[in-house]
Design brief:
Layout lengths: L4 E3 L2 E3 L2 E3 L4 E2 L3 E2 L4 E3 L2 E4 L3 E4 L7 H12 L6 E3 L5 H4 L2 H7 L4 E4 L1 H11 L5 E3 L5 E3 L4 E6 L9 E5 L4 E5 L23 H12 L3 H14 L3 E4 L9 H12 L4 E8 L5 H15 L5 E5 L5 H10 E11 L2 E2 L1 H12 L6 E8 L5 H12 L2 E2 L4 E4 L4 H15 L2
Parallel strand pairs: 8-9, 9-10, 10-11, 15-16, 17-18, 17-19, 19-21, 21-22, 21-23
Antiparallel strand pairs: 1-2, 2-7, 3-6, 4-5, 7-8, 12-13, 13-14, 14-15, 19-20
The protein binds MU-OXO-diiron (FEO).
Amino acid sequence: MNITEIRPGIRYVGVNDRTTTRFEALWPLPAGVSYNAYLVVGEQVALIDTVESHFGDRLFENIRREIGDRPVDYLVINHMEPDHSSSIEALRLRYPAIRIVSNAKALQMVEGFYGIGTNTLEIKEGDTLDLGGPTLSFHMAPMVHWPETMVTWCPEQQTLFSGDAFGTFGALDGGIVDTQLDPDRYWDEMRRYYASIVGKYGAPVQKALQKVRGLDPAVICSTHGPVWQERTGEVLDLYDRLSRYEGEPGTVIAYGSMYGNTERMAESIARHLAAEGEKNIVVHNLTYTDPSFVLRDIFRYDTLVVGGPTYNGALFPPVAHLLEMLSARCIPQRRIACFGSFCWAGCAVRNLDEFAQRMKWQPLGTSVEMKQGFTDSADEACRTLAAAIAER
Ligand code: FEO
């Protein structure tokens, strides 16, 4: 069985990256990441996207294994972020006659990033390219994840090349298509990828989803993570929920703590919430948990309980950083409860309450502000807050 043959005439030529520690120099990659590229083979050959430049040689080796010494006639660029585009120059050296196919915005970026402005083919919404057998059509999907992004459709194989959309962190450990691996390993990494990378662009993702549902793909070939064939319905539904910012019942307790006093408030709220019968509770210490995992869970669940101490007359920096990231993602609705502490002059809780107001999120209960150490009365206030949170 040749598992790189996704569908007749469609070959996987992507690579795994298990050495980069932070995607975009920001997001940790505990299980690596794949940069997916695909060949569509007819009388002529098109490559859909490239890979990060450090892995260019592996891409070329994979192409050679699939088509030998045949040339690659076209490079279709769905997305210009360098994790997919930075092998373009090397590809042109290897295949000098290759023609670069994309929309005007992407071709401008090809010139801007790599100084390549010749032998290009500009396409517009709905244009087609006949490869002599399979055909490709092109559909714009701006801001999923950059303004030039588009998706490419192969109607003969009902296959969608979706760019970053429907991608996940996590390398491909052997299998490529969801039927060849355990897809349950990837759902959380799909959420984390979405929340970190695409999370600001809910409305454009909704528009793109309408287009994708109209095409009704049997196979979705993203640029990261598994090829979706058996689980396309779940993938589309998950993206729909994420891009509508729809939280499922559950609570994220995200806190900062310098000496453990505010941490005891977080633990108290979590315990009392569980005593109220809540089961979906996730607690993150923001000093130690990378924000991408916290964002992942905030995108998943409908309630955020956030707390921290006062620091230099402001919020403790890891908590302030999380709030900045949430603001940047323009999450329109969540339930929120706040808690915090101070030693001599309170500020943290006021800042948290102001954040909740700015975001227009639904406040729950009365914010708990604690002076200095954790006491029975602080515990009782946390219990009261937990009871308010549990009233769904
Ligand atoms: Fe995988 Fe937006 O690049």
